[in-house]
Structure formats: structure tokens, C-alpha cells
Amino acid sequence: MTGKPLTDYVALGFTALERGDCQEAVNIFRRAQETGPTARSFVGLGLAFHRLGDPPAARWAFAKALDLEPADRDANEWIERIGRPAVPARTSGGRGCRFRAGEDFLQIKENGSWRRFFIKGINLGLGLPGYFPGEYPIHRETYRRWFRLMGELGVNSLRVYAVQSPGFYEALADHNEQGGRLFLFQGIWLELPEDGDFRGRDFLAYAHRQIREAVDSVCGSADFPERPGLPHGSYRRDVSPWTAAYVVGREWESCAVRAFNGRYGRKRGGFAGQFLKVDDGLPFEQWAAEICDYLQSYEHATYDCTHPVTTINWPTLDPLTHPSESTYEEGLIRQGFQVNVDVCNEDEDVETFDPALIASRQGAGFFATYHVYPYYPDFLNNDFLDVENPYREYLKRLRRHHGRQPVVIAEFGVPSSREATHWQRDGWHHGGHDEVSQGKINGYMMEAIRDAGLAGGMLFSWFDEWFKRNWVFLPYELPAERNPFWFNHQDAEQTYGLMAAYPGYPGKVVTLAGRREEWRDASLLQEKRGGAPLHRFGDGRDGARTLVRLSARHDEGFFYLCLETAEPVDFSAAHYLIGLNTCGAKAGETLLPFDTNARSPLGLTFLIHLAGEGASRILVSRFYDKYLNEGLPVRPVPSDTGEWVVMQNITNHRRISKDGTRFYPSRVFSMSGLRFGSLDPQSPRFDSLADWHVSGTLIELRLPWGLLNITDPSSRQVLWMAEQGGKTHTTDGIAAIACSYRPSGEGLAARPTGGRTNLADSLPAGLGSDAVRRYQWERWNHPLYHTYLKRSYYLYRDVLDRMPE
């Protein structure tokens, strides 16, 4: 049974154009072309590109339409209307350098005088659903719309990580020229040197080129040819008057910094450049000053002004000492393990990069920048277990160390993912937050940044990016090159945004709101028409235990199920089991639990137990559990032992203090609990993390693909670790059965029926194997999605409204 919705993607694409969702329309028309390109789909794609402000892409799409249908009137008319794009003339509101690094804060020059500028910023990525950042999929008109929403949020600045496409700078200039107030922190991304030598001739040439290209782009004086993984085009809009600073580099890795310092004998020394200096620093600190000095020197020589400059640091390399954090090697040795100390492990407190040593000689100056999240590294909790607010206390210590040098927190935030992947003492975990909690915690952190006397903060991030992967789930999102094609609600890295990028268009496929119309086009897995249940108890509630129908559907992020009963669901009278086979009929567990005395006609990898709000969960076959089989090949095996277990993930490993006197326990979170609620924003039970909902006779479930060990739904790959090295297996779909039983009132066990099994009812009737259907779905390469502002956007806006600039 193919779970293929009867979707006319071309018609849906034109609907998106009518709604003004042109960025989303690009993916929809691309999806239409997966089953065979048509002139109409390319015309729609051309219109989308045209309205997004990308004439070259629009012209290409219309030309492709004419390749297929030379007489297509729309394509011919639009080709003529667009014409051949000319290189735009350079425009500028007047080059300007309006910022400098003052004492404690950046300063902005307005009306002829300098004043404090408190940064209320946000980070902006590139990875729209279906794309890696290096594909630069975001177009000018999308940026224009986003900048307006950022202004309404109350941010006064945004940070990008690398040179963007020309449309970004055009949109930013337009926004500010039309009354907006959004200042740019231009990032300059630098990969680590392949040979580990930051002073190597090839690496310096690369770093200097990246710097020049960034400065030229900001100043509207660059032309780049098409290059893999890099932006291209003509840069003619000078946004230097709205540029606050340049941010050089990335989070430097401790092993790379340690090796570089060691290469040069850890010899301390000074550097005196034209604009920046270091009096007594380690080799990496000297190099950082040199590379930032190069930027200001180039900017001054070429454009006769300078902007403030910084480079990224993070707690792993901070200049503070953390007594709770022993090295990876020391921790294992003290626990009796033998480790290879010749291999550099990314320890969190063995190397230092101290930006406080970098000072200004002239020009706009230097400031310190850190990425600081409340949950990582572990010492952000363990060093501060006895203080009221660990996050604020850490920031205060940073502030004291840097004296009057401005300190900016350029990344902070929590994600709205289903799972937590790192523990924090006050519940500010790495994930596991609904949209409301996300907004509140983000606000608490921004207030802590202000209260600690720092120069401002930049929230991470503006929108959800599907291509990202977290260390807990990274081994199970395979193949990695297809990660942008699907949404993993389990993975915290994918849900930091205040703007959701959510599967389905034009809205959610299933809202968990009891809307039968959402199941009209679903695939019917099981149905029983007018039949009696397997067993009647005669207590007046047999109808709640009588199963009528089991349906399924899906989107790019979730597998949905709808179980229907003959009479309204009543958990005091009935519990329900839904078994899933995701890997093939012979793989999995057949014995059902809870004293049902029943066996499934096919192997089951997962079992959903619905027992009411707060008591429902999803279990996994013992042999298919990632946590219990760590280090072993994880794959389902035939079993009839009834070993069903809760799914868990370890978020923090045990730590030992530097002096070896204190142990900090590991942390484990359960993934099995099913959260009751609705995805309808108008519902009083709205919960962005809701897994299931009941309305009358309908039980609806939303199951993330990643929760079901599906490593890539877009190519139907499931986790199946072979002993010979393979990690995935192509599934032919998902089969499902459903059962009900009357709870005994003692625990979760079934009340005896006196029959062969203690089931009240089942789908298929009698659990016959010949009646089990398998849900299949079409593969895809271009995901459908829609965007909306999360509730966290509005809560965070309220916090910014209370903060003066």
C-alpha cells in the first residue's frame, strides 16, 4: 500500500505563488519535477525566482520550459520581459564606519556624537529545508520579509557566518534605507589549516582572501564567478554604513589550538600591527591579533575607514579555570580504563585562547566574542552547582577577566526539539523544550547577559535548519548527504529557530485536533465494518474497546497514525497497543506484553502503549534499542521473549573534578514518553511537542521518523547495522497492528477474558497475518515545508522590548 497523497504539485506550487510563499514554491515545483519535468512546472519555478528577485535563475527556468514546449506562451512572454540582466551599477548611501569598540560596550556615532550600543542581535543561517548552506538557496525578497519581521521582534543587529549572496546585501540596504534599523555583524568563515599551521603560506593566503572578499562584499565592490560552495554574482550595494563589526573565524577547536601552540614551542611573545597589538601572548593569540589586524589594515587602505573586529571564542578555550573539569584521559584513568594519551581529545579545559590580550593601537578597535550555551561544556553546570544562576555567574566571571574590553555573547539559545541532548541544572537543557519554554529560557539568558554587564547578545537563531546534526543523533542520520531532505524533531540542532521550518505545505498535515478531514486521503491499514469485538465484558463500555479503523499518513518529518474506536475513547475501560514493523516481517518481537497472552502475526520493532495522559509511551524491541546495544550492531532480530524496553539516550557522561575528589553523575533521558496535546494554536491544549491526541473516537499520533530508527525517510533507509559494516537497510514500508484490552486495575496488566488471549479486540481481526498491510511512501529529493513564527518569537520580543539599546 503506497502512502502517496493525491497531490498535484504543480497546482500546489501555483497556490503557493498566489499566497506569496515564493521561497516555498521553489521546492514545490522542484518536487513536481521529480516525477517528470514539464513546461508548466518550469514556468512556475521561473515565476517563483522572478518574484524572489533573482532574474538569472528566472530566465534559466523559463528557458527550460521552452526546451520542453517551445510554443509555451507564458515562458516566451516572461523571457522577453526579463531580458538579459545587466550588471547593476554601484549604489551607496555613502560609505561609513559608524561603530567603534569603547569601554564595556560597542559605540555608535549618531548626530555627531558617540553613544553606547547594546547589541540585541540574532544569528542568521543559510540552510533552508532541502539545502546545505553552500547552495545559497535564500533569495532577496525572502530576506526583505525576514528583515521586517526581525525589526518587529526588536533586534537591532544580525550576524551572518560568511559572505552571503548579493541579494542579502541588497535587501539589507533596502530595509535600512526605508527606515529600518538593522546592523550587520559580518562573519568570515575560516576552516582549520589542513597541516595544523595557522601561519602556513597556503592557509594565510586563503584566510587573507576570505577577508578581502568579505570586506569588498560589504562595501559593494566585488564580482565573484560561480564557485562550488561559495556565493557568486555582482555586489553593488554598499552596506558599510550599517555594518557594526567583522567577526573573523569560527569556534576554534582545542586540539587545533593546542597543536599550533605546541608547534611553536608555546613561546610567548608580542605582536604590534598597524591597528592591533598583543604584548605577551601564546602563538595562537599572536596569530589571532595578526589576522584581525590584516582585516583592518586592508579595510583602511582600500576604503579609508575601519570597523571593529573580533574573533570567536567559547568556553572550551576560555581563559578561566574550571575545577570540576578533568581531562577526558584523567577521568577514564581514574575509573580504571586504559586510554591512548597520544591522541588529542577535545578536552574542555586544557588549552586557552585569551582575547583580553588583544588591544587596539588605533582605528575602530577589537572586542571579545564568545559562544556560550547554558548546558555545554559540563563545567557550566558543575562549577556552579551552589549558585542561584549558573549561566549568569559564568558570564560575570568572563566580564571580570576582560576588564573594560567589550564582551559579546554571539551565540546562545535553546532549541524546541522533542529530545534533550545535554542536561542543565535548571532545566535549560539542550532541547526538550516546547515553544513557550524556548521563548522564556531565551529571555532569561538575554537578561543574564545584560545583568552581567556584557556588551550584548545574539540569539541563535532565526530559523530552523534541517541539515544540522547533534552528537547524540549524528550516527543515526544516514546517509548524511541527505540530511537536509527531512526534518528530525528528535535532533536539537534542527530547532533553534524563532521561525519554524515545519514539514508540509501550506500547513501541518496533521494538527492533532480531531479533524477527520485531515485523514480523508490517508492510507487505510486496517478496517473492521460492523464486526463485534473479540471479547465482550458487558460493562457498558465494550464500544470503547472495539477497534474500527487504523489509518496512516506521513510528511517530511513524521509518521502519523489514527486509531478509531466504535465509541468514545475511555482509558479507565481500555488500553490500546499499536505494533509497528519498520524493517520486514521476520524482524522483531512477536510476544505482546501486559499479560495479554497474545502474539503478533509479524515481528514488531516498536510498540505504542496508550494508557491515558501521562502514562502512554512507545517501547522498542530489546535488540533494536540504540542505548542498550551501544557498541554492538543495532538491528532487529526475530524474538518471542517479549523484551520490550524504554528508549533512552545518555546526554552527559560521568565527570571527575580536576583534583579527583568529586564525581559528577552521568545523565540519561527517556525518549519513550508520549506527550498529550494538540498542535492547533487555538486549542487550550496546544503543545508544540505533542505526540498524541484524543477527540471522541479518534486517537491521533505524531511519531518523528528518528524516533522509529528511520535514518532517512526520503530514501526509505532504516537503521540496520550489519556486522560487515553496513549501517542502513532499505525498508519496503511500515506494517501495523492494533489491539485493545481492559486494564485490570492493578498496574498496566490486562484483565483476563477467559479466552485464548486477554485481548478485547484487534486489527486485523484475530491478528491474522494475511490481513496485515504495509504502508509505503514515495521517495523525495525536495521537501515540502512551511514557515511560521513560534510562540517563542513573541515571548522573546517582550523581553527585548524591556531592554534599552
Overview of the molecule:
- With 805 residues, the protein is an alpha+beta fold.
- The protein has three domains: 9-82, Serine Threonine Protein Phosphatase 5, Tetratricopeptide repeat (Alpha Horseshoe), CATH 1.25.40; 91-502 and 785-801, TIM Barrel, CATH 3.20.20; 517-644 and 672-775, Immunoglobulin-like (Sandwich), CATH 2.60.40.
- Helix content is 24%, strand content 23%.
- It is built from 16 helices and 41 strands.
- The strands form twelve sheets. It has an eight-stranded parallel β-barrel with strand order 5-6-7-11-14-16-17-18, surrounded by four helices. Strands 23, 26, 27, 28, 38, 39 and 40 form a seven-stranded antiparallel sheet that branches. A five-stranded antiparallel sheet has the order 20-21-22-34-33.
- Helix 1 (9-19) packs antiparallel against helix 2 (22-34), helix 1 runs parallel beside helix 3 and helix 2 (22-34) packs antiparallel against helix 3.
- The longest helix has 21 residues, at 283-303.
- The N and C termini lie far apart (59 Å).
- The model has no long low-confidence stretch (mean pLDDT 95).
- Keywords: TPR repeat.
- TPR repeats lie at residues 39-72.
- This is Tetratricopeptide repeat protein.
- It comes from Geobacter sulfurreducens (strain ATCC 51573 / DSM 12127 / PCA).
